[in-house]
Design brief:
The chain is α/β, with parallel strands linked by helices. The protein has ten helices and ten strands. Bound molecules: adenosine-5'-diphosphate (ADP) and magnesium ion. Residues 8-253 form the ABC transporter domain.
């Protein structure tokens, strides 16, 4: 990729569900090493756009470029393999499995299709390498000592951090998070934000979809604000906070 070129470039992306324009001609760029927040009220189209970027849902029109390559038509597994790691808005951990086993699930994407199936077919030495990597990522996020605990027994805040660790096992260049702080208590949100800042310091680029303005404002370098499927504003947290259209969308005033 060209130096200074954006890592991710969303170009006039639209996504329609029948007559519903969930995302309408949205464009933005994300640069390596940045934490970019995608915010907006419920129904703004954030998750829909997130799903287009990550290949879960095809765009109706527009383009998504990643590291200089067109990834618009790739499926979720292919997008993941290119280095876009992700978590889901609703926790999809396997509660009856250990943290370590859950984290190992994150390793399926690199060169493999199918989640459980691929784990079942791993060679013994591959499994050992994946287990070691999963443990290393649990250590990195501060959950290493609980590796053999069942995921379902963790408080929600730690489950979200486990999801991040699981995504990290695939060694992503860009980490995408859809409302990782939803339902968390204040202290848990602060822990998550601190982790994401640390990961940025370690070279990770982050795209975070978030409804919680407070979390986002203290975390991100830049924000894209959506409302009603369209991009309403873009800028630093300070710029966005002052924007009258944003104030209207959030505060109705
Ligand atoms: P946000 O994540 O910002 O809350 P969403 O992207 O989930 O918003 O939703 C944007 C709009 O698209 C909403 O009106 C929602 O009902 C609609 N929508 C989302 N997914 C689908 C789908 N699979 N089929 C039909 N409509 C959908
Ligand atoms: Mg959403």
């Amino acid at each position: 990729p060209t130096p200074g070129a954006p890592l991710l470039e969303v170009q006039a992306v639209s996504k329609h569900f029948g007559g519903l324009r969930a995302v309408q001609e949205v464009s933005f760029q994300l640069h390596a090493g940045e934490i970019l927040g995608l915010i907006g009220p419920n129904g703004a189209g954030k998750s829909t756009l997130f799903n287009v970027i990550t290949g879960v849902n095809p765009a109706s029109s527009g383009r998504v470029q990643y590291a200089g390559n067109d990834i618009t038509r790739l499926g979720a597994a292919q997008v993941h393999r290119r280095g876009l790691g992700r978590t889901f808005q609703h926790v999809k951990l396997l509660p009856e499995l250990s943290l370590l086993d859950n984290a190992m699930m994150g390793g399926y994407a690199r060169g493999r299709a199918g989640l459980l199936r691929s784990l079942l077919h791993l060679e013994r030495h591959e499994e050992a390498a994946l287990r070691a990597e999963a443990q290393a990522q649990l250590d990195r996020v501060g959950l290493g000592a609980q590796a053999l605990t069942l995921a379902g027994s963790l408080p929600l805040g730690q489950q979200r951090i486990l999801e991040v660790a699981r995504a990290l096992v695939a060694d992503p260049t860009l980490l995408l998070l859809d409302e990782p702080a939803a339902g968390l208590r204040y202290g848990e949100k602060a822990d998550l934000a601190a982790l994401l800042r640390r990961l940025r310091g370690e070279g990770l680029t982050v795209l975070i979809v978030e409804h919680d303005m407070e979390l986002v404002m203290g975390l991100v370098d830049r924000l894209v604000v959506m409302a009603g499927g369209e991009k309403l504003a873009e800028g630093t947290p300070e710029e966005v906070r002052r924007d009258p259209q944003v104030r209207e969308a959030y505060l109705g005033a």
